[in-house]
């Protein structure tokens, strides 16, 4: 692909992301994306097979950016508390305020009928390996703080469920502080019980 082709493809994805942030999947038309990019509808099809292909690629690109940002935070060599605070701050400042992720960020939305089955299946297939890789990195990261105790994905899921239940029951004013104290408390409690 030439530099111009790469720029055009990125422009199409950028404009599509903006449209998907404002409208439901079914409401966005390829012609809407083409109009925003000031190109013919056929030009969009030069880069993407279909609207579902365009949506999935935009979704994957967005998830990849978040994963890259979280990886950067994990490997800053901060202590556990600072790292967790940085992740929560990133979530609050970037992900939670992003219109696109407010509309489509909940993975359950893609799997619960908001998209055609074909799109949901592409999303599942495309992102599971990415998320699993990040989970393994998180497990390794946590293992560094609890030397001599092996943490696996099953432990990580157990901790996340316990934390989510505790957050739901909490009456704290700030979810970040509550989550942080619960994560640290649950991690310590869980590691002591092993």
Give the mean pLDDT: 76
Distance between the termini: 53 Å
Largest sheet: none
- Helix- and strand-based class? mainly alpha
Low-pLDDT runs: 107-112
Briefly note the CATH topology name. Tetracycline Repressor, domain 2
Keywords:
194 residues, Tetracycline Repressor, domain 2, elongated
What does this structure look like?
- The chain is mostly helical and 194 residues long.
- It is built from ten helices and no strands.
- The chain has a single domain (3-145), classed as Tetracycline Repressor, domain 2, CATH 1.10.357.
- It has helices at 3-22, 30-37, 41-47, 51-74, 80-95, 99-104, 107-111, 117-145, 153-169, 175-192.
- Helix 1 (3-22) crosses helix 2, helix 1 (3-22) packs across helix 4 (51-74) and helix 2 packs across helix 3.
- The radius of gyration is 20 Å and the shape is elongated.
- Residues 107-112 have low confidence and may be disordered.
């Amino acid at each position: 692909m030439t530099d111009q082709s790469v720029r055009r493809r990125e422009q199409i994805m950028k404009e599509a992301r903006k449209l998907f942030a404002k409208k439901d999947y079914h409401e966005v038309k390829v012609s809407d994306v083409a109009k925003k990019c000031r190109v013919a509808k056929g030009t969009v099809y030069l880069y993407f097979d279909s609207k579902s292909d365009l949506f999935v690629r935009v979704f994957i690109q967005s998830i990849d950016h978040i994963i890259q940002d979280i990886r950067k935070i994990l490997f800053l060599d901060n202590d556990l508390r600072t790292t967790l605070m940085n992740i929560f701050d990133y979530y609050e400042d970037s992900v939670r305020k992003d219109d696109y992720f407010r509309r489509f960020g909940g993975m359950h939305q893609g799997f619960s009928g908001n998209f055609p089955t074909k799109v949901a299946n592409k999303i599942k297939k495309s992102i599971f390996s990415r998320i699993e890789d990040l989970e393994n990195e998180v497990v390794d990261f946590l293992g560094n703080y609890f030397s001599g105790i092996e943490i696996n994905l099953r432990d990580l899921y157990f901790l996340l469920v316990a934390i989510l239940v505790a957050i739901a029951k909490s009456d704290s004013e700030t979810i970040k502080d509550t989550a942080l104290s619960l994560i640290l408390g649950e991690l310590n409690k869980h590691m002591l019980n092993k």
